[in-house]
Amino acid sequence: MAAAENGGGGESKAAFARIYDALKAELLRDPAFEYTESSHEWIDRMLDYNVLGGKCNRGLSVVDSYKLLKGVDVLSEEEMFLASTLGWCIEWLQAFFLVLDDIMDDSHTRRGQPCWFRVSRVGLIAVNDGILLRNHISRMLRLHFKKKPYYADLLDLFNEVEFKTASGQMLDLITTHEGEKDLTKYNIGVHRRIVQFKTAYYSFYLPVACALLLSGESLENYGAVENILVEMGTYFQVQDDYLDCYGDPEFIGKIGTDIEDYKCSWLVVQALERADESQKSILFENYGKKDPACVAKVKDLYKELNLEAVFHEYESESYKKLIADIEAQPSDAVQKVLKSFLHKIYKRQK
Hints:
The chain has helices at 9-27, 37-51, 57-70, 77-104, 125-145, 151-175, 188-214, 223-246, 249-252, 266-274, 277-286, 292-304, 307-327, 332-345; strands at 109-110, 113-114. It is an all-alpha fold. It has 2 domains: 12-147, Farnesyl Diphosphate Synthase; 180-349, Farnesyl Diphosphate Synthase, CATH 1.10.600. The chain has a two-stranded antiparallel ribbon with strand order 1-2. 38% of the residues are buried. Keywords: Isoprene biosynthesis, Magnesium, Metal-binding, Transferase. Its cofactor is Mg(2+). Its EC number is 2.5.1.10. Pfam families: polyprenyl_synt.
């Protein structure tokens, strides 16, 4: 893998993909465990099934952010390997969350194929596979970063983000408990807390924090950057909630089910804030039901309350505030990193 290979977007992705193969091979040679042929095959298949198949946006963001922080278009072979390894650690973390999340939600498909626990002969072995995925992160960090001065900070960062994400998942699960449907629990504060902790930290803050540590920076000096990225992650999830209802299924690649699934969506929270008593009773009667007629009534109410316009105003205000906060950052390189994240998601259609 020559250094010049990671210059462009496509080449960077190709180099990133090759590093996955190298990391997987190392894990399958881990001297701490005596692999049998069957256990070797199991892990090999489990990793390909769960770690691969996504867009790798989080992982690639580590590489892109590191380049911007260094002010270069091309990284050395070692720099590319280390940045990609941290990127893949985030993809492993994502896989760990999704494997367990799908079991908790009793989901059927993930990335266009059956959820791992629904695959023949897997079942609840998937719980242990989730634990292994999380442990692989520690193995990779130890193997490639143990002698780095920021090793303890990296371990601390992954532990902290995992705790925040699991806590956000708990809040989401107990708020939307099956059999305890109660819309009075839903408000903007609850929605915001779920989103920040469940999604924003690991999807937005973690890739940039990894790139900062790789650049020799101390995260203690970047509290404002953390706040901006968490705010960006919140905005991203609000967009997701909006697109679930208003996005074109042909374009976004899925049919939204937040209304049927009784999700604590930004739209239902906004509707509850704006509805009068008779409109609230329509929500209480129809939200969270699979019947298409009930879903249509909720969507009609959203239209009546003009939630599309409410969202567009929120989007515009969020963008203005984020840009102002980003431009207040003293480092031009950090500004470039933050703007690159924002411009990828602003006014996205899927």
